[in-house]
Design goal:
This protein has 728 residues and is mainly β. Helix content is 6%, strand content 55%. The protein is built from five helices and 38 strands. The strands form six sheets. The chain has a 22-stranded antiparallel barrel. Strands 3-2-5-6 form a four-stranded antiparallel beta sheet, with no helix packed on it. It is globular, with a radius of gyration of 29 Å.
């Protein structure tokens, strides 16, 4: 009897063991057929599961007999369920379909090829979700937004009026080209105020191309370009945004978007004010008094199934006043209180874009934009109480006709464009009347091809003729190599140039006083060449984790750049001449992003070695930290909470007089809470109160004012702002 029971027990155990199966599968991308590492698979309604290994193999043990549902999930791919009847003796191949809304499907417009970011040979960085966060911190301007990328520095050019420019990879701000929807109309006379006047609320993405990019849109992009892409009326949207800060900001902003069958509209209206603020109580403004109005309507017409038309305009009016706080409180100037700086600015910009599809993949496009910019800068610089005034208007235009043809593996685009920039100084301005006129005709061609599933190549050539007799040939080449789905390399380089102009940071510090016009007979265009190489590695780990790492190395060589020199005459004047030497910027950027559940950690490090060599004298480029670190930790629960902590480190910088500054850290925090259509936010910037005036006075010779002071650290100190966003 005992023996019989033992035999039955052994048979029962054997039958139970036999009914537990092992599931084996290889998981791959349905389009590239590459294996997927870190994919999560589990048996539905059980706790049995596994993660795919380095060969893309999933092994799940102890699966019961009968029909079971295996669920496959992976970041960036559609979740898949497969019903399988066990026992099964074969290893299956599971193909995963990428999500259409995956971030890798972001379409890049700055390279003109309209390819996804994953398949673009040119290295492009894109901001999308960060735009909403940046508009919470400051809805009046994009200055805060564009610093979200490593290697980008917003350099303040005036200690009292807070004008600023954008520096990429250590080079001066005049070498950065800023575009709005591909229109290059934010340079020259308007350059130092552009990023202080462009609002972020109507943007859907921001594209960065670092390194020489003049081949794409013409001269100016020696260190790179930033392309601001506006929202289009895809859905009906009404947004009311109000913001107030403890240092005097009050912003009311409204954005509206709607679309019918054939007509769409977007409309942005803003009223931004800021009372003057003196953080250190030294009697001079650290934040100017600002009154700004901005209105930006756009209309989109679908003329037929193959034809689109967009017309838009931007109207900006701003008064920006800084200096002695007593003068901003209606006191009359005297020999003790005299310094005042005021900018009166008006900008009107028009945009037109016409696009017609000839046949599948073949499109012709015509674009035109006009920009009228008027600025009056008035200063009382000394105890003589004589007002100095620099004013004028800038009329710029950009027109382009292009043809593009897109096949399954190739994209070809060619076109011609015309760019004009005409600045005329007001006859009632300073004693030196200055005029700058540049007209450029360009022809370009760009060809992108997928040599294989793993290799893509992009080549470009631009020929520009500047109507003073100068001709430029600007080649450019980039390559993308996909070693695997996780590992990719981009390498590229090109040439660039910039027309000489007085509108540079050195002249802005002097308020253009005694700055002579460019002598076109002796001063040549600035010319450059450079390149970069980067390696990116993306590691999705299951359904809720991912790691992105990118390492880039960059190099730019600028031959005979402009420098400001003093002339010997009865009255001291200044003029720009070509340096007898070069400027070189080289370094590396490291980008790390780690996502886990509802948290995202970002860390960005930049090493910059930027030097000038003037007749054998080597010096560091002023206001360029060799080491900079920035990052943030963000918790986001969609449609509920968003909490972020950010930090930035800058190592010591060399000033124009050769003095080295200290290194420093800044920290910030932002909290948002959303209930249905209402979002309430609070933002705390620089809560450790790092201020330049804590370590030195801004007052400088010869007039004991902040006029000639270089800004290397924040001036406003702790800033708290709060408000709400209401979506109707």
């Amino acid at each position: 009897m005992f023996i019989l029971r033992s035999i039955l027990f052994i048979v029962l155990i054997s039958n139970i063991a036999y009914s537990q199966n092992t599931f084996r599968a290889i998981v791959k991308d349905s389009s590239s057929r590459e294996v997927l590492i870190g994919l999560r698979a589990h048996v539905k309604a059980t706790d049995k599961g596994a993660i795919s290994n380095s060969q893309g193999e999933v092994i799940i043990k102890n699966v019961p007999n009968g029909e079971q549902t295996i669920v496959f999930s992976y970041i960036g791919f559609q979740q898949k369920e497969s019903k399988i009847i066990f026992p099964i003796g074969e290893t299956l191949t599971i193909l995963m379909i990428p999500k259409a809304e995956d971030t890798e499907e972001i379409i890049i417009t700055g390279t003109r090829t309209n390819k996804s970011i994953a398949n673009t040979p040119t290295r492009v960085e894109v901001l999308t979700e960060e735009i909403d966060e940046a508009s919470t911190m400051d809805p009046s301007k994009i200055a805060h937004l564009i610093t979200h990328s490593t290697g980008i520095q917003v350099q303040q050019t005036s200690a009292t009026s807070n004008t600023a420019n954008v520096r990429i990879q250590g080079l001066d701000g005049r070498y950065t080209q800023i575009l709005k929807d591909g229109f290059p109309l934010y340079g020259g006379f308007s350059g130092s105020l552009s990023i202080m006047q462009i609002p972020p609320l109507d943007l859907r993405q921001v594209e960065y191309i670092k390194g020489g990019a003049s081949t794409l849109f013409g001269g100016g992009a020696i260190s790179g370009l930033i392309n601001l892409i506006s929202k289009e009326p895809e859905n009906n949207e009404t947004l009311l945004h109000c913001n107030i800060s403890h240092i005097g900001a009050f912003d009311v902003n409204a954005f509206y978007s709607a679309k019918s069958e054939n007509i769409g509209i977007t409309l942005l209206g803003q009223r931004n004010t800021h009372r003057f603020f003196d953080a250190d109580n030294d009697g001079f403004t650290d934040m100017p008094q600002i009154i700004k109005n901005n209105f930006n309507p756009k209309l989109f017409f679908t003329l037929d199934t193959n034809t689109m038309l967009m017309v838009g305009a931007t109207f900006t009016d701003e008064i920006r006043t800084g200096g002695d706080t007593k003068l901003l409180s209606n006191f009359s100037p005297d020999t003790n209180h005299f310094y005042k700086e005021q900018n009166d600015v008006k900008r009107i910009t028009t945009q037109l874009s016409f696009e017609h599809t000839l046949s599948k993949g073949k499109v012709i496009t015509f674009r035109n934009s006009l920009n009228f910019f008027e600025r009056s800068l008035s200063i009382i610089p000394s105890r003589k109480l004589e007002e100095y005034r620099f004013s004028g208007n800038q009329l710029s235009s950009f027109s382009e006709f292009s043809y593009s043809s897109a096949g399954e593996n190739d994209v070809f685009i060619a076109g011609i464009n015309y760019y004009s920039d005409d600045f005329k100084e007001d006859s009632l301005s300073s004693r030196i009347l200055r005029t700058e006129i540049y007209k450029t005709i360009g022809a370009f061609a760009n060809f992108t091809t997928d040599i294989s599933n793993a290799v893509s190549l992009e080549t470009g050539l631009r020929c520009d003729y500047v109507l003073n007799g100068t001709f430029f040939v600007l080649p450019r080449i980039s390559a993308l190599i996909k070693w695997s789905q996780q590992l990719a390399t981009r390498i590229g380089g090109g040439m660039g140039y910039r027309n000489p102009t007085i509108f540079n940071q050195e002249a802005e510090l002097l308020a253009y006083k005694n700055i002579l016009s460019i002598d076109k007979n002796t001063v040549e265009q600035e010319k450059s060449y450079g390149g970069n190489v980067d390696i990116s590695y993306k590691i999705p780990i299951g359904e809720s984790f991912f790691i992105n790492v990118n390492q880039m190395f960059f190099y730019t060589y600028l031959n005979n750049p402009l420098i400001l020199t003093a002339t010997s005459s009865p009255t001291e004047n200044y003029n720009f001449i070509n340096m007898n030497g070069y400027v070189r910027s080289a370094g590396a950027e490291t980008f790390f992003k780690f996502g886990f559940y509802d948290f995202v950690l970002f860390v960005g490090y930049t090493y910059t070695n930027a030097i000038s060599n003037n007749m054998g004298t080597v010096a560091e480029i002023p206001l360029t930290p060799k080491h900079s670190l920035k990052g943030d930790l963000l918790y986001s629960l969609p449609n509920k909470w968003r909490v972020g902590l950010d930090y930035e480190y800058k190592s010591s910088q060399v000033l124009s007089n050769g003095r080295k500054t200290m290194d420093y850290w800044t920290f910030g925090a932002v909290v948002e809470y959303t209930y249905e259509s209402l979002t309430i936010f609070g933002n705390l910037e620089n809560y450790t109160d790092m201020r330049q005036t804590r370590y030195e006075s801004l007052v400088s010779l010869p007039n004991n004012t902040p006029q000639l002071t270089e800004v290397w650290m924040p001036l406003d100190g702790i800033v708290f702002n709060t408000g709400f966003k209401l979506r109707l």
